[in-house]
Amino acid sequence: MSTTITATSARERPVILVGNPNVGKSVLFTKLTGKFVIISNYPGTTVEIARGQCGEFHVLDTPGLNDLTPATDDARVTCAVLREHADAVLVQVADAKNLRRALVLTQQLAALGRPMVLVVNMLDELDQCGGKLDVRRLSELLSIPVVPTIATANTGIHLLKQQLEHARVPMLPATDTRDLPALWRRANDIVAQCYRLTRPHRATVAQKLGWWATQPGRGWILAAAVLAVMFWFVGLLGAGVAVDLLESGLFGRHLNPLAIRVVDALLPFPHEHQREVNEVTLKLPLTPTHGVTVWESTREVVSTEHESVGPEHWTRWDHARRLAHDFLVGPYGQITMALSYALAIVLPIVTSFFLLFSVLEDSGYLPRLAVMVNRLMRRMGLNGKAVLPMILGLGCDTMAAMTTRILETRKERVVTTLLLALAVPCSAQLGVLLAMLTRISFAAALFWVGLITGVCVVVGWLAARLHGGAGSDFIMELPPMRRPQWDNVIAKTLARLKWYLWEVVPLFMAGTAVLFGLHELGWLERMAAWTEPLVTGWLGLPRETAAAFLIGFLRRDYGAVYLLDAATGPAAVLTAHQVLVAMVTITLFMPCVATLFMIHRELGWRTAAAIALFVFPFAFFMGGVVHHVGGWLGL
Amino acid sequence: MKRWLECPNCGLGFDRADSPCQRGCPLGRWCDLACCPACGHEFAAPPRWWQWWRRVRRHSPVGQPTGAVCHLGDLQEGETTELVCVNTANEHRRHSLAVYGLVPGCELTLQQKRPAYVIRIGETELALEHAIATELLVRRRSAI
Ligand SMILES: Nc1nc2c(ncn2[C@@H]2O[C@H](COP(=O)(O)OP(=O)(O)OP(=O)(O)O)[C@@H](O)[C@H]2O)c(=O)[nH]1
Ligand SMILES: [Mg+2]
Ligand SMILES: [Zn+2]
Ligand SMILES: [Zn+2]
Alpha-carbon distance A383 to A366, whole Å? Predict the structure, then answer.
């Protein structure tokens, strides 16, 4: 039976993009619908359905799957969608270099009896490795339209749109779709009739890099190099130079004084602003402590601190105006604190981080790191695959909590999520921590890294023991190493930035408003006094930092930014030892509210609550231990 | 200790310990049946003295027969071989390997062994851990 779908019945028909992981479904989706979705070079980028419109068709992008008996939650999502849309046209996307594997899936999809189109994508890469494909012959063999494309270069997209109307049910002899050896034999037969591959003898630079990345010696060197580049780019350039320029230069020198002047003109009351010295340096950092200074200038500017003149004689209006004045431009002001933290500190840090991170994602390096750390992850009852969500967590823990779907068992998902919530700092926080590293000695920095890793291993091990249940096999596909595509890197960075700022700016404003309120009511001081035994006694930190932990409940990175200000800002109050203690505590501190909500959605509220209840005391416990043991060791 | 058996059905040479029934057989090493990892044929393992006698009669060299089956771990890095079977009772694992093309008869190249195994099947590069790699029985090729 073969049915050609006529144009009329194709209207409003859902079109489902399916295929093996990492074959370019999401690129194709973006080209078809114009909607942005995250595209990266590793299997398991997409873990949720994305929907868009292409002409009259309703297009769905799905997580990749290897066969129709899924083992992971993301593949289950795809199977559910296939079941749900029984009238959909299936567009199977195939990697031209790996046609055989696609054809195994094609045979399984054919058994569903739906109209199909086969897209053979990445023809450019097929050319590079000297392959030839007879598209017409393949189309005859499968009796469905076959469309060759290069999705990234927009080639063949138009043809695909035309062919959607001609989707047909494939005519393949019936087989048991669970008998994989038989499916592979059939795929081999088909490939033999329409496909030729002569592999070149010389390996490309990218291929060699890919091999090195998983080898015992070179792999670690490469990993160290990646880490060093990240430290330099995010910690020194982003969180150091760019933050200095924006915070001291833009905000401290221009925006804050301007805002103060405007507010003073609009809300006059008798007061006098103090003045402070504002220093701006533009330098090219070489090491954490040295750099080439390009430009330097100091100037005196107005400060947010002010002294009231004759407050005894103030009218009620004067008091109200002072309140509004301080709400906007005071020490806890919306402009001078919330916006300057969000835009002058967090923005440059996350921009530099997301830029580098997108490059790493698109290169195909991340899954290779999983090969290197598989042994270590085994100790925690996980396997190397779990490293992917953990690294994504460095971007944002909330998204990463969802990416744990690529793991096979619930135990792995729970343990990975716990470690994400506990010990994986997200982009802004990581940048802040990297910047704080410059304030402590190299030995102390190593101690911090070692301690966090150690905590991960021990907590992971314990959690795996307590949770029970099975782990899964470490079987992971390694994507080819590719040169990152700049347009994709930029698009991804911008999309993440937008989303991040949408989330961060309102929360920072709310947090600042809370701090302002507490300060006005005089409770901030009182709360600092209550937490005295904990913060000063147990952690050995100055009282001022209590506010950082208070606000850390809202967002970990906000608390971290607060501490950074205390550690390296104009009025640094922390000693090197205190910086270390603060770093450990805030690294392990509560995940942000959004992450807890995501954990609740993915794993249920019990797990979310258990994680929150564990993480909070544990962070303080470890901080105190570091304070006492570190003092004793003399770090 | 290795004990080489030869399947009377398909002629595959394999180590006694790789017989699928060897793991999980309640009789353990007292069981006298062997099961061919490639074709699943079950046969009574001949006694040692009989094997020894046959070897003497045939004047064939003692030890591993050529074209014999070994673990993936016994190969050198860079060697290309043919998969004989995935010797595991774990159906799920067999399935998850099969979706990448690891089915009996496929050709695979061992790229590296440490810190984890990396093999190439056609265009798929696959990372595996040691425990799984030792379950892959492959037929060694004399010259690559
Ligand atoms: N050279 C080349 N690369 C491509 C082409 N299409 C996609 N890619 C790259 O392939 C990688 C994977 O693309 P995605 O669209 O994320 O793949 P996917 O199928 O959605 O993957 P999952 O969501 O993980 O299942 C990206 O790095 C793309 O840049 C192509 O036609 N040519
Ligand atoms: Mg995708
Ligand atoms: Zn003022
Ligand atoms: Zn046999």
Answer: 14
